[in-house]
Design a protein that fits this description.
single chain; 34% helix; 2 domains; Immunoglobulin-like; 9 strands
Length: 163
């Protein structure tokens, strides 16, 4: 009988080892499922957004020779040229009284500081140009593209000269 008792102790230890192994395998499977269904789509979407911006980074520019400011009256104008891209929108970052101010421009948007509040148009694809007139003096400007309502990095920056 003593020998039977020893066998049952060994089999209980073996069963607990098997249960522990099965639990570790289940935890691994659950972890892989979480990675597959949550993290991978999140990373994939983030990479797509970054790729979209990377493809358009050089598709818009400020034409330096046609962008300038006047002292009396204090005004500024920025001429923007688009490459081969259908624009959803652009944003201009411009210095105003020592601070950087950002303006989002989409077709038919109206901004009181730009073009006397008239409806704004975007430059057309393939080399189209638009001039944006501001009712204040600025010495610096930058432009970037908006894709899917998100701003990509600044495509071009310039220091404005006196007209």
């Amino acid at each position: 009988m003593i020998s039977l008792k020893c066998k049952s102790n060994y089999s209980k230890k073996a069963v607990s080892s098997i249960i522990a192994s099965v639990l570790l395998i289940l935890i691994t499977i659950v972890s892989i499922s979480v990675l597959t269904f949550v993290i991978i789509p999140f990373v994939k979407n983030s990479l797509n957004e970054g790729t979209n911006c990377f493809q358009v980074i050089d598709k818009i520019e400020i034409i330096n020779e046609a962008s300038c400011y006047t002292l009396s009256p204090e005004t500024s104008k920025i001429k923007v040229k688009a490459g081969n891209i259908n624009l959803e929108g652009i944003y201009l970052i411009i210095e105003k009284n020592g601070d950087e101010v950002s303006y989002e421009i989409k077709n038919n948007s109206m901004i009181s500081d730009i073009n006397n509040g008239d409806a704004l148009k975007l430059p057309s694809s393939g080399g189209g140009e638009r001039t944006y007139n501001f009712n204040f003096k600025s010495t610096k400007a930058g432009v970037g593209i908006i894709i899917n309502d998100k701003r990509c990095g600044i495509s071009d920056e310039t220091t404005l000269n006196i007209c």
